[in-house]
Design goal:
By secondary structure, the protein is an all-alpha fold. It has one domain. It is built from 4 helices and no strands. 0% of the residues are buried.
């Protein structure tokens, strides 16, 4: 909801993300603090739709799941 409220100001969105991830880390010491790295692609987003790669992901997703399954059975 805060990202929607501050949709016009990207820097406030980044600050909100960092503060929330810090609070989560302080309260739980969980790995969720790594969500702070989502700020990097947020900074580079220019508000325009990127290339349509829908067909690539229709192939990539099942293939990578199968590869992860095979890898897990080998380990």
């Amino acid at each position: 909801m805060l990202f929607y409220i501050f949709r016009k100001n990207r820097w406030i969105q980044i600050i909100v993300l960092v503060v929330i991830s810090d609070v989560i880390f302080i309260c739980s010491h969980d790995i969720q603090w790594m969500m702070v790295f989502a700020a990097i692609p947020m900074l580079f987003y220019n508000g325009k739709k990127g290339k349509g790669m829908k067909n690539f992901f229709y192939i990539f997703y099942p293939v990578h799941i199968i590869l992860l399954y095979i890898l897990s059975t080998l380990i």
